[in-house]
Design goal:
The protein is mostly helical and 187 residues long. It contains 10 helices and no strands. The longest helix is centred in the last third of the chain and has 28 residues.
C-alpha cells in the first residue's frame, strides 16, 4: 500500500505536462493492483487527477463500474461513501449527462446513511441535490423520485431520533403531542 501511494504521488506531482499520459498511468496502476485498499487509492487518485487537469471526460465512464466495485471489493459504508462522493464530485462539472450521473451517485451516497445521523455537510449536499433534481431534464423523473424517497427516509430517521431523545429525557407528554398516538409511515 505504501508503495502504491509513492507511485501515485510521483505520477500526480505534475499537473501541467503529459496529463493524459499520467492519467493513463493511474488507470494502468488500478488494473495492476490486487488489494482493495490499493485499488481504492488508485480510483481516488484517478478521479482527483482528472478533476484537477480537466480530463474528467476521459474517466466519466467509470461511474458505470462503481456498483460492481462496491460489491466485488466488499466496501464498508465509509469506503462506499468516499468512492460515491468523489465520483459524484468529478461528474458534477461535466456535461448534462454527467451531471445526471452525478445526481444518481448522490442518491446512492445518501442511501448509505441507513440509521446514522446525517452531518451538516450531507444535509447541505441533499439540499443541493434537490435543487439539481428540480433543474434536471424532464426525463429524469425516476431520479427525482429516488431522491425524494431518500430524503423522506432521512426525515423519518430524524423524527425517530428526536422521539428517542424525548423518551430518554422522560418527556413522554411532549412525545404524545408530537405523534398524537399515531404511527406515521413515509413510504
Amino acid at each position: 500500500m505504501a508503495l502504491i501511494r509513492i507511485i501515485i504521488a510521483r505520477i500526480i506531482a505534475n499537473k501541467t505536462t503529459e496529463t493524459e499520459r499520467r492519467l493513463n498511468a493511474l488507470i494502468v496502476l488500478l488494473n495492476l493492483t490486487f488489494e482493495v485498499p490499493s485499488k481504492l487509492e488508485a480510483v481516488y487518485a484517478i478521479f482527483n487527477y482528472a478533476m484537477e487537469t480537466n480530463l474528467i471526460d476521459r474517466v466519466a465512464h467509470f461511474h458505470t463500474r462503481i456498483n460492481d466495485w462496491i460489491i466485488s471489493w466488499k466496501l464498508n459504508a465509509d469506503q462506499q461513501r468516499k468512492l460515491l462522493r468523489i465520483a459524484s464530485l468529478a461528474l458534477t462539472n461535466g456535461n448534462q449527462s454527467a451531471q445526471a450521473q452525478a445526481l444518481r451517485l448522490n442518491i446512492r451516497y445518501f442511501q448509505t446513511f441507513k440509521n446514522e445521523a446525517i452531518s451538516a455537510d450531507v444535509d447541505n449536499l441533499m439540499k443541493t441535490s434537490v435543487i439539481s433534481a428540480i433543474n434536471s431534464p424532464v426525463d429524469a423523473f425516476s431520479d427525482r423520485c429516488s431522491l425524494l424517497e431518500v430524503i423522506l427516509i432521512g426525515f423519518s430517521l430524524l423524527i425517530s431520533n428526536y422521539k428517542m431523545s424525548l423518551l430518554s429525557n422522560r418527556h413522554s407528554a411532549e412525545l404524545n403531542s408530537i405523534s398524537n398516538g399515531h404511527t406515521y409511515y413515509l413510504c
